[in-house]
Amino acid sequence: MDFEFIITSKQEAIGIVELNRPKQYNALNRKMVREIVEAFEQFERDEEVRVIVLQGRGNAFSAGADIDEMAFDDTIKLELLNQFADWDKIALMKKPIIGAVQGYVFGGGFELALSCDMLIAAEGTEFCFPEVNLGVMPGAGGTQRLTKLVGRTKALEWIWTANRITANAALQHGVINQIVQKEILIEETMKIATQISNQPPLAIRLIKESVNKAVDYSLYEGMQFERKNFYVLFSSEDQKEGMQAFVEKRKPQFKGR
Ligand code: HXC
After folding, report:
1. What torsion do the CA atoms of 59, 65, 69, 71 make, to the nearest 10 degrees?
2. Which member of 131, 141, 142, 167 is catalytic?
3. 45 and 163: one domain?
4. Which of 175, 2, 192 is nearest to 96 (CA)?
5. Which ipTM value was assigned to this complex?
6. GO biological process: any one (predicted)?
7. Over 80: is that where the pLDDT of 1 sits?
8. Fewest CB atoms within 10 A around its CB: which of 105, 178, 253, 254?
9. Do 229 and 128 share a structural domain?
10. Residue 130 domain boundaries
11. pLDDT for 61-91, tens place per residue?
C-alpha cells in the first residue's frame, strides 16, 4: 500500500497503521484521514487480517487536526468538503481496532483514539481537547463519544477547560484499557491484538457490533439485537468446531466461517 502520511504493514493476522508526520506530532490533515480510512478498508477486505492496530510514530499519537489546513476554512467550504464522511467510515469497520497511544493525544487525535475499540496508553500520555482555546469545539465525535464514555459532568469539565488529562485519569474514567511503560507499548498492544486475533473472528465481529449497539439502543432493543447475533453464530463452522473441541477436550481451530 502506497501512502504519503501513514505507513501500513502486517504482522501475521494483525494489520498495522502508523501515523507518520512525526515532526508535526502527527497532526491530521485531510489526506491523512482519508489514507487512514483507506488502509482500514483494505485491512477489512484482507482475509488474513483479524485485528487492526493504530499507532503514531515519534513522540505523539496525534496533536489533533492540522490547524494550518483549517485556519482559513469557512462554513460553506466545510459543508461542501464533507470531511466527516471519512471519519464516519471508521465507525463502520467491523474488525477490532486497537489504538496504541503515547505522548500527545489532542483534539482530532483524541477523537481518532476514541474511534478505536480499545486503547493501550504509554505512561505519560496526555489527553486533551484544546479546541476551545482556538475558538472552536470538537467536531469529529468528541463531545458525543467522550460523554457516552465518562458522563456529562466530566466531559464538560474536560472540553470546557481544555485541561490535559493524565493517563491515570483516563484509565480511572474508562477512556483507556491499560497503561504500560513506553518502551513496551507496541509489544503489549501486539500481545492483546494477537490474543484477540486467535479468537473466532465471526464471534469477535458480532460482539463488537452488539456492544456498539448498547451505546445507542434501549436495553430492550439491544437485547433483541444481541439475540439475533447469538443465533447467527450458530450458522458458523466455528460454533460447531468450538463446541466439538470442548466435548473432545482439545484446542479449537477457528477458521472465521
Ligand atoms: C498543525 C501542528 C499541530 C496541529 C503541532 N503542530 N500540532 N501543526 N496542527 N494540530 C506542529 C507545530 O506547528 C510545529 O511545527 C511542530 O508541530 C511542533 O510543535 P510545537 O508547538 O513546536 O511543539 P511543542 O512546543 O512541544 O508543543 C506541542 C503541542 C503544541 C502542545 C502539542 O504543538 C500544540 O498545542 N499543538 C496544537 C494542539 C491543538 O490545538 N490541537 C487541536 C487542533 S483542533 P513547526 O513547523 O513550527 O516546527 C482539532 C479539531 C478537530 O483537532 C476537529 C475534527 C477534524
Report:
1. -120
2. 131
3. yes
4. 192
5. 0.98
6. fatty acid beta-oxidation
7. no
8. 253
9. no
10. 6-197
11. 999 999 999 999 999 999 999 999 999 999 9
